[in-house]
Amino acid sequence: TRQAGSLRAAVPAGARCVVVDDVLTTGATLAEAARALRAGGADVVGAVVLAAVRPPAVPLTADSRPAPPGAGEYRL
User: Fold this and answer.
1) What is the residue-level pLDDT of the chain in tens, covering all 76 positions?
2) Distance CA 28, CA 5 (A)
3) CA 4 distance to own-chain centroid
């Protein structure tokens, strides 16, 4: 089990990054990767997934707050 906040990123300050994940389930891995990249000084400009399970009823933002009603996307 991975502990929240356990990812670290070494990127050049201001680097523009796209987070890539193989399977999207809850969005937690994407959110944690985006958090780590931002903490390392990167600018996360988007995310790409290869496959996704059915999205949750209430999409979550990167800080785990519910997204605004009607938002059908994950926010990083």
Assistant:
1) 344 566 777 888 889 999 999 998 888 888 999 998 998 899 999 999 988 886 555 555 555 555 555 555 555 5
2) 11
3) 13
Helix (H) or strand (E) holding 7: none
| Cα 22–Cα 23–Cα 24 angle in degrees, nearest 5 | 130
Could you tell me if 24 and 52 are in contact, meaning their C-beta atoms sit under 8 angstroms apart? yes
pTM above 0.90, yes or no: no
The residues spanned by each domain of the chain are 1-55
Among residues 19, 7, 73, which one has the least CA distance to residue 44? Answer: 19
